[in-house]
Every structure is written in structure tokens, then in C-alpha cells.
Amino acid sequence: MEGDFEERAALCALNRIFGFEPKLGMSLVGNFGGAANVFSAGRKAVGEVLGPYNMKYAQQISSSAFDSAAMELEKLVSHGCRFIGYGEIGYPQLLRECDDPPLGIYYRGVSAPEEVFTTVGSPDNSGHPVSKTKTCIAVVGTRKISSYGRDWCERIVKAMSKATVKPLVVSGLALGVDAVAHRTALENGLKTVAVMATGIDQIYPSQHHDLGGQIASTPGCGLVSDYPPDTQAVAINFIRRNRIIAGICKSTLLIESKIKGGGMITAHLANSYDREVFALPGRVDDPYSQGCNLLIRQNLAEPIGDLAELMQKLSLGKTMLRHQEDFVEAVREYYKVQFNEDDLAQICSIAQCIKKNRGISMDEICQQKHLSFNALSNCVTQLECDGFITVDILQHCSARSNNL
Questions:
Q1: Which residue, among 301, 227, 224, has the nearest Cα to 270 in the 3D structure?
Q2: Closest among 284, 279, 282 to 266, alpha carbons compared
Q3: What CA–CA distance (Å, rounded) separates 145 from 138?
Q4: Are 100 and 23 in contact (CB under 8 A)?
Q5: Of 39, 35, 36, 17, nearest to 27 (Cα)?
Q6: What are phi and psi of 21, to 5 degrees?
Q7: Which residue of 47, 118, 310, 392 is surrounded by the most CB atoms within 10 Å?
Q8: Start-to-end Cα distance in the chain
Q9: What is the SS3 assignment for 345?
Q10: Please, where are the H alpha helices in 221-340?
């Protein structure tokens, strides 16, 4: 056990030193036959392996760096966190297969990490259950999610929750797509993991403090980071974080993204790891769909369309999707007891207009239907409160799918 702690502390120290150069750190571990051996080899021997251009790293590999990491490990345990070194039980198998895996990851959750990232499979020949890697699906995209993106993100995650194989939904705890993916997973009984661009003791953004706490306190879920405690959120950290998201998952789903954005970086990283990438097609003139559309045109991502087909492509098996009712008929059926004939016809007409014109503004509906704004507002509020439509801050209306 003492030897395990020494190796873990050495990996933790090397992770601090080579966080942005994981290949270099891994090459040292391989050359010396273990992380602890790197620290006992001596600066000269380490310098010879690293070469003259990387001597700055050799100077950081010291007994003080090891001692600092050892104290950090003890402190982590007292805070309900832990460090999982490369090769240890609980380190995600698919991440190990990447060419630039971190030397270790920090983890926080009520379940052991091996329970989060693995599942019990069929018994072997001796009758003992065999653990296998859990199917992990990344759901990522823009922070400025549209009603279209939110609707589809929710539909996709709900479909996963009704599939034969229940995946682990992985995202980055950011605003927009990430938060929708995490929350929808939790609301529908799926497990979810948030990969953070800060230390494991931080929650960013601050608005997601409760969401992060919920994930950490839900069995089968967890928070993950490869950054040491006390690391704050800075721009460059998010790029390094994205490779962890892509590396953990067999498939990455991009919901909405500009041509340049974190979601696009994650998608390209997933491609570089030879993983599946899917993208949600969007309007040609929508900047937040241009990234998805570009990946599809370049054959770097498959388009997301039919949900049952998507579940099959994700190897999740069948999904128990309810028959999709006609939207306007569903509205009519819902309100036929509450409204008189004229009011029912009016709200159905408004619903049909919104269904045909996703993102239509309330002013545009008034013009098309020759309604006063007050009359329209009452109907729109009713439709929104009853879950038929969504209305964004600019009063653009979109039909919400009810096929799940």
C-alpha cells in the first residue's frame, strides 16, 4: 500500500509539472519504469532523457515537488476528493488509449470512480462478473444555446434515457449546452460526469455551484479535472479540459457551435482519437450552427436526425420513443375542454404558426394573424406555461417537441 501511495504521489507531482506536456511526462515514466523511479533517478539522468530543450522540467522534478504532492493527496481525502494516477483502478480506460492522456485525474463524487466509469458485464467462464467500460457520450456545444439547440439537446438526452443501454453523459459544466445536457440527464435518471477546467475544489461558472454539487452528490455521477486544487478558470485551461471530455467518450455530440468554439475543438479532438462525432444540423444563416454544418460538409461528423437511428449508431440499442402526435392536434386536444370554439381555434392557429416558423417573433405573429399584442401574449404565455412552446428573452417563439 505504501508503494502504491508513493507511485500515486509521484504521478500527482509529474501531472503538476507536465500538465500541458503529458506526452513528455509519460515518456519519462516509461523510460524509468514508473513515476516514483523518475524522482529517485537524479536530475542528471532525467535531463538526459528530456534533452537540452526541456531542462526547465528537470529542475522541477525534486523532493520538494514530491512532498508537496504527497501532502496534497492527504488533503484531498479530507475534502472528499481523490487523485487517480494513470494505470490505477478508476482511471477511464478510453482515456488511457489516447496518445496524450494526463498522468492522473482528480475526482469528486459519492461513488467510487471505478463504479462511475465501468459497469458489470456478463460472467466469465468461471462465473465471475466481468467489468467493462461504461458507454460514455459527450454532449457539448455553445454557451449561447438557442431554443432550437435546447429543444434538441433535451430530446437527445431523453432518448438516451429510454434506450436499452444507458450511457454516461459527459460534458463540461459550462453555460448553455453543457448545463442542459447535465440537467436533462439528472432529471431523466441518467448518470453524468462534468469535466472541469478548474481545480476539483472549484466550481465554474459560479452560477453552477448547485448543479456541480448535485452531480458530485448523486450516485454514479462525478466531477473530474486534471488541474491541481486552487486552479482558477483561465482561457487556456478550457482547451486542455476539452481533450479529457473527448478522450473519455466513445462518441461526441455537438449540438450548436460557431466555426470557432470550444465545442468544435472537442469535436476535432474526438476525431483525432478516432472516435465517433455527430453534429446537429442547423440553419445556414445561423452563426451558432455554422460549426456543426461545416463538420457535416467536411464528413467529419454524421448529421443528427432521427433519434431512434441515432441511438442505434451510438450502440445504445432501441429507444422507447412514444409516437409523435401532430403538434396542433395535441394543442387542440389539450385545450378543447378549457376554451370555447373561437378561443380554441385562435390558440391552435397561433400554435401552427409557431410550429411552421421556428424562432418567429411575437411581433411577426401579430402581423401574420392580425392580432393585438395583448391577445397574442395571453395565448403565448398559456402555450409556454403548458410546455408546448419556448420563448426566449427576445420574444422569439419555437415549438417544443413532445415526442418523448
A1: 301
A2: 279
A3: 16
A4: yes
A5: 35
A6: -135, 60
A7: 310
A8: 49
A9: helix
A10: 235-248, 262-272, 290-297, 307-313, 327-335
Q: Count CA within 13 A, CB hemisphere, residue 15.
A: 28
Q: Which grid coordinates are listed for 95?
A: 482515456
Please give the angle made by the CA atoms of 233, 254 and 307, to the nearest 5 degrees: 140
Contacts of 107 (CB under 8 A, 6+ apart): 81, 82, 83, 84, 90, 113, 200, 222, 223, 224
Angle between helical axes of 290-297 and 262-272 (0-180°, round to 10):
20
Cell representation of residue 12: 500527482
| Spacing of C-alpha 371 from chain mean position | 43
171-220 pLDDT tens trace: 999 999 999 999 999 999 999 999 999 999 999 999 999 999 999 999 99
Please say whether the beta carbons of 49 and 71 come within 8 A: no
Q: Which amino acid is at 76?
A: L
DSSP 127: S
Residues 332-375 pLDDT 10s = 988 998 899 999 999 999 999 998 898 899 999 999 999 999 99
- Owner of C-alpha cell 449561447: 144
Q: What is the DSSP letter of 200?
A: T
342 Cβ contact list (under 8 Å, min separation 6): none
Report how far apart, in Å, the C-alpha atoms of 401 and of each of 305, 317, 330, 386 are.
14, 22, 11, 12
Q: CA Rg, the chain, in Å?
A: 25
SS3 321: coil
Q: Taking phi first (over 0 means left), then psi (-120 to 50 degrees means alpha), and beta for anything else, what does residue 220 get?
A: left
Q: Report, in this order, helix, strand and coil percent for the chain, each rounded to 5.
A: 50, 15, 35
pTM: 0.81
